[in-house]
Amino acid sequence: MVLIIGGAYQGKLDFAKETLGITDMDVYTCNSSQIDFSKRCIYKIEEFTARHDDPIGYFESHREEWQDSVLILQDIFCGVVPLGAENRAWRQRTGRLAQYLSKEAIQVSRIFCGLEQRLK
After folding, report:
1. Cβ burial, residue 106 (10 Å; 0-12/13-18/19+)
2. Which residues are 116's β-sheet partners?
3. CA dihedral in degrees (100, 34, 111, 92; nearest 10)?
4. pTM
5. What is the pLDDT of residues 34-86, one digit of tens each?
6. Measured at the alpha carbon of residue 87, what is the angle toward residues 93 and 46, in degrees to the nearest 5?
7. Alpha-carbon distance 12 to 44, whole Å?
8. DSSP string, 22-86
9. Which position among 40, 68, 75, 107 has the lowest Cβ density within 10 Å, counted as fewest Cβ atoms?
10. Has residue 6 got a pLDDT over 90?
11. Quick one: CA torsion of 50, 58, 100, 27, rounded to 10 degrees?
């Protein structure tokens, strides 16, 4: 699995398309508490963590389904801590999932201004 992280509008999906051969048909964009792992690329995982109380448990229970995937996650776990408890919990779930996925990944890339910084 390849994990791509970075801030909003930094070119994460474009990077995946250019370097990993991802096409629009390969992309599943998260918008619920379930993920369609039949797609090669799972995009906006932070939207999934906003809707799921145990994202690590979900990924663990579907482990075989995402091992060959490209996972793209927006970095919402840095910067100013949100005031609301719900947003803080979402940020914490997302950060913990990023840690879990980073350990599982064969490659971790941070994208900033469209440029890759290889972390793993």
Report:
1. exposed
2. 111
3. -50
4. 0.93
5. 999 999 999 999 999 999 999 999 999 999 999 999 999 999 877 777 688 99
6. 50
7. 10
8. --GGGEEE--SSS--TTSSEEE-HHHHHHH-S-HHHHHHHTHHHHTT-EEEEE--SSSSPPSSHH
9. 68
10. yes
11. -70
13 touches 27 (CB < 8 A):
yes
Half-sphere exposure of 66 (CA within 13 A, CB side): 24
* 41, two tokens: 């690329």
* Cα–Cα dist 88/58, whole Å: 20
Confidence of residue 14 (pLDDT cuts 50, 70, 90): very high
Section 87-103 average pLDDT:
94
